[in-house]
Amino acid sequence: MEKLEQVYEGKAKKVFKTDDPKKFILSYKDDATAFNGKKKGTIVGKGVVNNKMSNFFFQKLEKEGIPTIYLEELNDRDTLVKAVEIVPLEVIVRNVTAGSFSKRMGIEEGKELLHPIVEFSYKSDPLDDPFINDDYATALGLATKEEVETIKDYARKVNEYLCKHFKSVGIRLVDFKLEFGRYDGKIILADEISPDTMRLWDYETNEKLDKDRFRRDLGNVEDAYHEVMRRLGLEK
Ligand code: UDP
């Protein structure tokens, strides 16, 4: 399957048409941004890591009964996916306090929550992805009530699977972001699952193994991404 016209260029990926209108090719870049594009940089090899890690988890999640965009990995950076219409919600799942939650609630990072939280932001660069709730999403027609329920159900199931998998390799899944799309009128998991979109802390030392190393200038960003790949058995 070949890349035709580029339909979209995001911060971390490009999207291309193919000769099948129901299939796109995602191409993962090394470009890194934070704080809604205000900080820019490169994480060498990140595109390859994120492509492979996302595809690994999408295949696992399909087996757990969660439909995803994944079709076929074409090479190190490119993957054939189902062409979806993205639901303009950032679906965030939290297990441990961190980031914007800690700031908003005035709670230090690293506190285990009594149960996982699923929350929504409205995907909008000019508005800096404002925090919204289910009523905003349905009242503004961003998603139907049924879609919101499906999204929350899938998000909780993804969390259960990922928590277990990461725990088995000594990593705490602090929080992460998912995006969903519509395909044949059904909600499926879209976007990516990678250290760009998750907070991953070493269980023993709490060392950060994710994009916070880039956001907060902690150094060894590439090493952290490769460490996660090694622990997942995806790299030597
Ligand atoms: N996240 C993301 N993209 C965004 C916002 C958040 O991938 O545009 C991820 C982020 O990496 C973290 C989780 O979602 O794992 C929760 O992020 P938070 O709301 O704390 O925002 P942040 O502090 O990253 O701005």
From TrEMBL:
<dbReference type="InterPro" id="IPR028923">
    <property type="entry name" value="SAICAR_synt/ADE2_N"/>
</dbReference>
<protein>
    <recommendedName>
        <fullName>Phosphoribosylaminoimidazole-succinocarboxamide synthase</fullName>
        <ecNumber>6.3.2.6</ecNumber>
    </recommendedName>
</protein>
<keyword id="KW-0658">Purine biosynthesis</keyword>
<dbReference type="Pfam" id="PF01259">
    <property type="entry name" value="SAICAR_synt"/>
</dbReference>
<dbReference type="InterPro" id="IPR018236">
    <property type="entry name" value="SAICAR_synthetase_CS"/>
</dbReference>
<dbReference type="GO" id="GO:0006189">
    <property type="term" value="P:'de novo' IMP biosynthetic process"/>
</dbReference>
<dbReference type="GO" id="GO:0005524">
    <property type="term" value="F:ATP binding"/>
</dbReference>
<keyword id="KW-0436">Ligase</keyword>
<dbReference type="InterPro" id="IPR033934">
    <property type="entry name" value="SAICAR_synt_PurC"/>
</dbReference>
<comment type="similarity">
    <text>Belongs to the SAICAR synthetase family.</text>
</comment>
<keyword id="KW-0067">ATP-binding</keyword>
<dbReference type="InterPro" id="IPR050089">
    <property type="entry name" value="SAICAR_synthetase"/>
</dbReference>
<dbReference type="GO" id="GO:0004639">
    <property type="term" value="F:phosphoribosylaminoimidazolesuccinocarboxamide synthase activity"/>
</dbReference>
<keyword id="KW-0547">Nucleotide-binding</keyword>
<dbReference type="InterPro" id="IPR001636">
    <property type="entry name" value="SAICAR_synth"/>
</dbReference>
<comment type="pathway">
    <text>Purine metabolism; IMP biosynthesis via de novo pathway; 5-amino-1-(5-phospho-D-ribosyl)imidazole-4-carboxamide from 5-amino-1-(5-phospho-D-ribosyl)imidazole-4-carboxylate: step 1/2.</text>
</comment>
<dbReference type="GO" id="GO:0009236">
    <property type="term" value="P:cobalamin biosynthetic process"/>
</dbReference>
<feature type="domain" description="SAICAR synthetase/ADE2 N-terminal">
    <location>
        <begin position="7"/>
        <end position="231"/>
    </location>
</feature>
